[in-house]
Give the backbone structure.
Amino acid sequence: MTRTPSLAALRAGLETALDPDARAWLDQSLTEAADHKADSGQGPVPTWELRFAQAGRRCGPEHADDARLLLLHAARADTATLTRLYEQGTAAERRAVLRTLDHLVPGPEALGLTEDALRTNDTSLVAAAVGPYGAEHLGAHAWRHAVLKCLFTGVSVDEVAALADRARGDAELARMLGDFARERTAAGRPVPADLQRVLALTEVSAETSAETCTETSVETSAVEAPGASSTEPLTRAGAPTEPPSEAAPAASAASPQES
Amino acid sequence: MRIFDPHIHMTSRTTDDYEAMYAAGVRAVVEPAFWLGQPRTSPSSFYDYFDSLLGWEPFRAAQYGIAHHCTIALNPKEANDPRCTPVLDQLPRYLVKDNVVAVGEIGYDSMTPAEDTALAAQLQMAADAELPALVHTPHRDKLAGLHRTIDVVRESALPLDRVLLDHLNETTVKDAKDAGCWLGFSVYPDTKMDEDRMVALLKEYGPEKVLVNSAADWGKSDPLKTRKVGDAMLAADFTEDQVDQVLWRNPLAFYGLSGRLDLDVADTDATHEGNSILRGGE
C-alpha cells in the first residue's frame, strides 16, 4: 500500500526499465533540475519544468510518475512551484505533484492541492490525494469524506495511506459507513466490498493489533457478507459486434452548425 | 472496423455517445479546442477548457476504452475578441503537454486582420513545438478562405505536409490536395459532407492522406458518422484495407507527426475500477 519508496530505489528502478534514449534524457533533465535557479514563475518557463511536462512521451506513460517525482525532488520544488505545476498541469502532472507532497512539503501548506484533487471525480487524482500527505494533514471531516469518496468512486482503499491508524476507533466514520451501506441496500445495490474492511478497522480499539481486525465481526445488518461485489465497472471491452442504431433525432433541425 | 475519429468535441457529448462509439469500432479520438457555442469573455475560461481537454475528458474516454488526445489553440472566431487574445501568450505552455498532438483548430472564420495575426502566430508556435496543425476552413466564402489559408501556411515556418485542412468539400478538395496538405472531411447529418458524397470524393481523389471525421459537437451532429462512412465505402466496393487506411491509418499517420500518440487505454490506473463517471453509488 504505502508508496514513498526511497528516491534511490525509484532512480534505480527507472535506470533498469528505461531504454538508453529515455535514460539519457532523464539523466540530463535531472541535472537541469538540480542546477536550476529558484525563479518567481513570472519569466519564461524554466527548462526543467518543460521536462516535467514531457516526461510521459520521453519515458513512457508507465514511468512518467516516477520520472516526474524525481524531477520535482531534484529541483527541490517549493510549495509555490508545486502549486503552479499542479494548477498548470495535466491530470498526469497533477498526480505526480500530489505523490511528491509528503516528500517535499513538511507542513500543511499544500493541503489546498489535496483538497482540490478530492473535489475531482478523476479516480487517479483521488487515489493520489489519499496518499501519505493527505493522511498526515487532512482534518477528520475531510478525511472521512475522502474515504467515503473512494468507496463511491471505486478507488481501492488500499490507496488510503495510514488507513488502519486513522480509522481506528472512529465512531463517526463507522456511522457514515453504516448509513452508506443501508442506502445501498435500500436501493437494491451491492455494498462495496471495501466498506466492510474499513468498517472493521473502525471497530478496532487502540490496543488491538491490525492483524486481528479482519476477524472482527460486523453487526451492521445492512452490510453484506465479504465478497459482495464492489460497484460494477463501466461497460467497456465487451465490444458488441454490430454498430448501434441511429442516434435519436435531434430536437431541432435548425440547430447551429459551426464547428 | 477500427476507427480513429480525428475531430470530435467530446466535451459536448454524453457517456451514451462514448458507449455507442466504442460499439461502432471507435478506439481513438482527437478533440480539437474550439469555441463552445457561447462566446467566452476571459482567458481563464480558456484555461479551464484546456485543462478539461487534458484531464477530465481523457479520463472519461478511457472509461469506455477510447484513447483521447487533443489539439490546443485560440480558435479563429474568438481570436477576434480582444478580451480573449491574451490566450495566445499562454499557448506555448500547453503545447508541450504529452496529450497535445497538434495546434488547432486554427484558420479563418470571417477572414479579419485579427484572424490573420492569430493564424500566423499559431503556425509559428506549431513549428516551434514540432507539432502539426489542424486548420479549419471557413464556412462562409470557403474557396477564397482556403486559398488565403494555403498562402499563409506557405509563408509560415510550418511545411504544408504538416497541415490538415479540415471541413473540405467538392469545391475545395482539389486545391488542398494540390498544395500537399492532409485532407479532412467532416460528415454531418445536414450540412458539410454526407456519406455518399464522401464516397464519391474518395473514388475521384483516392484515399491517400484523406481523414474523415464526425466533428460532432453541441449542434446537430452524429458521433457515429465515421462508421457510417466506412459502411458506405464497403458498400461501394472499397476494400477493408482502404477503409482501414481512411478511418485508422491516415489519422494515425497525421497525428503521429507529433511523436506523442499513445493509444494504450488499458485503464486509467490498474489499481482501481475507475468508474467514478457513475457519480457514486450508481
In short: Chain B is about 40% helix and 15% strand. Chain B has one domain: 3-270.
